[in-house]
Amino acid sequence: MLHSDPSQPQSLGADLRALRKARGLTLADLSDILGRSVGWLSQVERGMSDPSVTDLRMIARALDVSVSSLFRQEAISAKEQGYIVRANVRRPIGSREEGLIEELLSPDLTDDFEVVHSTFDAGSKISKAVTRATQEVAYVVSGRLNLSIDGVEHTVGAGDSFRLRGEPYKWSNPYSEPAVLIWVISPPVY
């Protein structure tokens, strides 16, 4: 796969294209969902047209991401664009589950994978199993997390890692400290 030149600033459009493709949607599919023309969406993805706030809300809803995940929080220096992600400028992403904070560690969504920093608050859990057409590997930086992967129960702790390949899974953190994990996910889903 050809990847964009990291020295060139990535646009909102490049991330939108990556998200659309990760969801298996064509330009025509997403255009139909949005009620907009293929030409307009193509221009947005190529950085030739700027969507309105209303358009961004509709796009975020259609791609199942938060609107805030589409924006960088602070200016990124030109020399770091596409290479460096500073801790104070990580983009919030994810499912928006109560008690789960996810941040994008990858500079953008234009690669074959994304790297995500997740913090699972003490006492948090997801009630409905998640199934994604992805391959994912997670490394537990700190804390402990209970997992149910395809109905099999596991507990992972600091230094452990695990893999998901499209199986349904659930998580819970019944412990008194947050669990911090680093994920590598392919293809990008956020």
Description:
The protein is an alpha+beta fold. Helices cover 20% and strands 27% of the residues. Helix 2 crosses helix 3.
Keywords summarizing the entry:
globular, 190 residues, 27% strand, 3-stranded antiparallel sheet, alpha+beta, 6-stranded antiparallel sheet, single chain, 20% helix, 4 helices
Q: Mind summarizing the main beta sheet?
A: 6 strands, antiparallel
Order of helices and strands: HHHHEEEEEEEEE
- The number of helical segments is 4
What is the averaged pLDDT score? 86
Shape assignment = globular
Would you count the extended β strands for me? 9
Structural class: alpha+beta
Uncertain parts: 1-9
What is the gyration radius calculated from CA atoms? 17 Å
Strand order of the largest sheet: 1-2-3-9-4-7
Distance between the termini: 19 Å
Proportion in β-strands: 25-35%
> Portion of residues in helices?
10-25%
Task: Describe this structure in a few short sentences.
The chain has 190 residues and is of the alpha+beta class. The protein contains 4 helices and 9 strands, in the order H-H-H-H-E-E-E-E-E-E-E-E-E.
